[in-house]
């Protein structure tokens, strides 16, 4: 069932000079109302409903933290149109527009740049990069793009006068990528982060970075909002200084390149061919532990590729690759696929409970999964080392930065549990995060969970844009398979 957010009930205030067909809802001063109205595009790099049924996205998190730091309430206005966002901001229908590229739009000012993106060419992986670039620069193929990338294309056209393109207003990065993957478009110019995220779900696309220089993302606001601009500048200085921005960026982008296209393609094939045999057991494991069945299934794939007879050189075996000690502790037969799944899920839950009083989600889950791979003792050592290095032991982004140090004598000799191949759990968890993201796109949760209402944050979605993580990129060819499950 599609999940939609709250819709705008009405437009009340009409600005001078606007026609009756284009009513304007001008915002009141935020300093008086203590409410910040923020325009944002939907998508995995900005705002969406994640696999757990919560609002998520880098922009959503940043704006929420900004509001909390300044004792403000937030009202998000979700838009699927970049040009519309800027036009509405210029008409003073909001105080901020986030997730956009810093530009010289008339009547707008910008806060601090906080991220670099670049326009990238997306095309079929059956075509070489050289062939794709030649086709568009010589005018032999059409190129679709979004308004924010026209400047980059105009610069390219100086040296490639045959280059031509079609600007699509009422769409977004994900939709363009999806259409290229489905063969409906030959080429698209999109945001680099969006392309990297989507490449896991569409391994049949390729990316070229030879389309323009990097651009800075910055929050936009009307040029009269000088006080707001100063607050934004101060907020991002603090985010950079205390490492919060780095941790948030790692949460959303730190694992996107971990699974290569061939591995993703093999995984997608097994989702169709193998997963149906075990899906009910993964869902039962969720019922017993409360963990998302798709995370348990992704872990099982990471461990055994859903092979109940898998055995490693070190003696771990079964669907969840349990040691004999762990299997005994969970009171399961690790060679039995059903019992292995239940035992593995119970073990992860036990590890999470060990961290429950310290690490918030989703960091707690990633730390527990690192312990699943390397052992709780070595994870404790890594967290101890993080504290010594003035990093956050409850942040997965910080802990994963010190885990590889456990193989160096100058570090492991000072710790309780000694030497460990600390790079392995980093690769393990990042790969698992990618597998989980992919499965969350293709498989529905066992139950529908709506975002919890909040007194301080309201999300308004007047156009009923689909914001679920698995609503936009769900392949049509999976519909028939899903009906048979």
UniProtKB/TrEMBL annotation:
<dbReference type="InterPro" id="IPR008258">
    <property type="entry name" value="Transglycosylase_SLT_dom_1"/>
</dbReference>
<keyword id="KW-0732">Signal</keyword>
<dbReference type="Pfam" id="PF00497">
    <property type="entry name" value="SBP_bac_3"/>
</dbReference>
<dbReference type="InterPro" id="IPR001638">
    <property type="entry name" value="Solute-binding_3/MltF_N"/>
</dbReference>
<dbReference type="InterPro" id="IPR000189">
    <property type="entry name" value="Transglyc_AS"/>
</dbReference>
<dbReference type="GO" id="GO:0009279">
    <property type="term" value="C:cell outer membrane"/>
</dbReference>
<dbReference type="Pfam" id="PF01464">
    <property type="entry name" value="SLT"/>
</dbReference>
<dbReference type="GO" id="GO:0008933">
    <property type="term" value="F:peptidoglycan lytic transglycosylase activity"/>
</dbReference>
<dbReference type="InterPro" id="IPR023346">
    <property type="entry name" value="Lysozyme-like_dom_sf"/>
</dbReference>
<keyword id="KW-0998">Cell outer membrane</keyword>
<feature type="domain" description="Solute-binding protein family 3/N-terminal">
    <location>
        <begin position="35"/>
        <end position="256"/>
    </location>
</feature>
<keyword id="KW-0472">Membrane</keyword>
<dbReference type="GO" id="GO:0000270">
    <property type="term" value="P:peptidoglycan metabolic process"/>
</dbReference>
<protein>
    <submittedName>
        <fullName>Membrane-bound lytic murein transglycosylase MltF</fullName>
        <ecNumber>4.2.2.-</ecNumber>
    </submittedName>
</protein>
<keyword id="KW-0456">Lyase</keyword>
<comment type="similarity">
    <text>Belongs to the transglycosylase Slt family.</text>
</comment>
């Amino acid at each position: 069932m599609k999940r939609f957010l709250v819709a705008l009930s009405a437009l009340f205030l009409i600005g001078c000079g606007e026609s009756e067909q284009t009513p304007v809802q001008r915002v009141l001063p935020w300093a008086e109302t203590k409410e910040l109205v923020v325009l944002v595009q939907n998508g995995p790099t900005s705002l969406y409903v994640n696999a757990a049924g919560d609002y998520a996205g880098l922009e959503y998190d940043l704006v929420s933290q900004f509001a909390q730091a300044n004792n403000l309430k937030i009202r998000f206005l979700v838009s699927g149109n970049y040009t519309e966002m800027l036009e509405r901001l210029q008409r003073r229908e909001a105080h901020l527009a986030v997730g956009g590229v810093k530009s010289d739009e008339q009547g707008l000012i910008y806060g601090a740049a906080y991220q670099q993106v670049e326009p990238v060419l997306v095309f079929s992986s059956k075509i070489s990069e050289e062939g794709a670039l030649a086709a568009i620069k010589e005018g032999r193929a059409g190129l679709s793009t979004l308004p924010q990338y026209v400047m980059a294309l105009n610069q390219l056209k100086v040296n490639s006068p045959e280059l031509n393109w079609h600007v699509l207003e009422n769409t977004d990065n994900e939709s363009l990528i999806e259409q290229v993957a489905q063969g409906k478009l030959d080429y698209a110019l999109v945001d680099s982060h969006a392309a990297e995220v989507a490449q896991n779900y569409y391994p049949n696309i390729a990316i070229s970075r030879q389309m323009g220089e990097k651009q800075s993302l910055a929050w936009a606001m009307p040029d009269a909002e000088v006080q707001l601009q100063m607050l934004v500048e101060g907020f991002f200085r603090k985010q950079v200084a205390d490492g919060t921005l780095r941790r948030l960026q790692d949460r959303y982008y730190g694992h996107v390149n971990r699974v290569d296209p061939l591995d993703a393609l093999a995984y997608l094939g097994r989702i169709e061919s193998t997963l149906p045999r075990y899906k009910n057991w993964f869902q039962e494991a969720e019922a017993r532990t409360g963990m998302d069945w798709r995370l348990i299934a992704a872990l099982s794939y990471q461990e055994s590729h859903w092979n109940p007879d898998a055995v490693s050189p070190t003696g771990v075996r079964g669907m969840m690759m349990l040691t004999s000690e762990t299997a005994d502790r969970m009171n399961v037969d690790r060679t039995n696929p059903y019992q292995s799944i239940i035992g593995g899920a119970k073990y992860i839950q036990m590890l999470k409970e060990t961290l429950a009083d310290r690490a918030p989600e989703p960091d707690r889950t990633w730390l527990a999964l690192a312990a699943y791979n390397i052992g709780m003792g070595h994870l404790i050592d890594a967290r101890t080392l993080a504290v010594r290095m003035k990093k956050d032991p409850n942040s997965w982004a910080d802990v994963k930065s010190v885990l590889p140090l456990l193989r160096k004598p100058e570090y492991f000799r000072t710790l309780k549990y000694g030497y460990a191949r600390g790079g392995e759990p980093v690769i393990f968890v990042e790969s698992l995060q990618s597998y989980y993201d992919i499965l969350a796109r293709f498989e529905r949760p066992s139950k529908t969970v709506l975002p919890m209402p909040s007194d301080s944050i309201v999300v308004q979605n007047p156009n009923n844009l689909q914001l679920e993580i698995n609503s936009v990129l769900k392949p049509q060819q999976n519909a028939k398979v899903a009906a048979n499950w």
